[in-house]
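Lab notebook: predicted structure, single chain.

Context: the supervisor wants predicted structures on file for every construct in the current expression panel, including those that have not yet been purified. This is the next one on the list. No modifications to the sequence; it matches the entry in the shared construct table.
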Amino acid sequence: MTIQAKAAGPTLKSISPPPLNRQLWRGVAVAAVFFGLWGVSLLFSRPATLIINDRAYPIRTHQRTVGAMLQKFGVSLAPEDVVEPSLDSPLDAGQTITIQLARPVTVEADGHTRQLLTHRQNLRDIFADLALDLDTRDEILVNGQVVSLGAALPPSPATSRPDAINRLMAAATPRGAALTARPERAKIIVHRAVPITLSEGETDQTFRTTKLTVGEALLEQDIPVYLGDKVTPPLATPLRPNMTIAIDRATPVVIFADGRNLKTRTQGRTVGEILALENIPLVGQDFTRPALDHEVLPNDIIELVRVHETLEIDAEYIPFETQWIADDGMELDQQEIRQAGNIGVIKSRTRVRYENGQEVAREFEDEWLDQTANTRVIAYGTEVVIRTLDTPDGPIEYWRKIPMLATAYSAATSGKALDHPNYGITRTGMEAGYGIVAVDPKVVALHSNVYVPGYGLAVAGDTGGLILGKHIDLGFDDDQPLPAIYGWRDVYVLTPAPGPGRIRYVLPQWPQRP
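Prediction complete. Output recorded below exactly as produced.
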């Protein structure tokens, strides 16, 4: 703004400062007023020391009483807090005001939760203030830790709260100290030791416990519960005062069954009940040692005996007889089975008893003729037929042809020494050599004339210890090399044929021709 003034002298022209300079000057003026008032307030305020829970805070105040000063700083107190001097005491310069804040405590007991502020440190005193009567066996937890009835509360760490009081205190104190908060809350939980009666067999005992369940109480009392024991009420049941816990002890037993050794505890009273509880069935004639109705005692041994029986059928065989029948209408050395023979069979039945796989008894039960022996009837021919055979030596007549095992021998191989008086003498007295054969007289009669293909005509004039049945030993001279002969040949017995009483119609069947 420009103000002009008219005067007789020269004209004066006033120029206003710029807007920024006006705002700056205005701020400076306000600050000057504020600091002036603050200085006046500080000049006329009184110094004091405020101690809260042993922490000191220097302050200055215009208030005349302790209560007015605390109200000015916004410090709210509970009735349980202790202030010295009292709130209505005048506040003098340099005075010290002490405040002891009561500690917040939560107590849970007997189903109720109580909140209190207290200066008490000992638990016994706190419970006395609450009229709580505790037993030494009650369990006390402070902040989750088990303590005794005579224990003190744990110390509370001081914590700072950035609330309005602290801000006011910081503004009012030179060092800007923070106001200490109320001590940390302590939580006390009381678990009452309730009376419990334990009934086991014929014995009852009473104890007190703070545990919550039946199982925990038994564990606390070092009372073992084994598999098979019956606990009433069950282990997970919550405890209540004057509860009775009954334990019906299982009986320890050992069961031998099916190759296994089972150690167990059971509520069964007899062997039968125990096997039923253990799902071990008896089948058929199975039995136990001791018997099923036996009342077991601790550590008894129960043996399960598995029984099975088998029937063994034994057979005794009776050979059949053979009946030979002569048939004059059938050619010599021909045979025909007219009736087949059957072996007789006598059977018997025996019952065999096994216990746990071991045979323990045999009992004969019955015997019977299962099959009758039947005689075999064989017809043999007795008709002698004369035939002619052309040979390199000319035709021959023969009345019997016998297949025989042929071997060779000489006097030197007959078993006698060269100087033996009977060296080279055959059974018939003839000299051994070519044309003399050894035979079994039951097959070929001695002195019979025979023809052997590949050997020629010969006389059955000798025998031998090894010449049995259909075996012929062909004789050779000592001055000839003894040939290696071993094989089957047809031997022709030459005519004349002997009379019927001198013929063996059924010849031995050995040796057997392959």
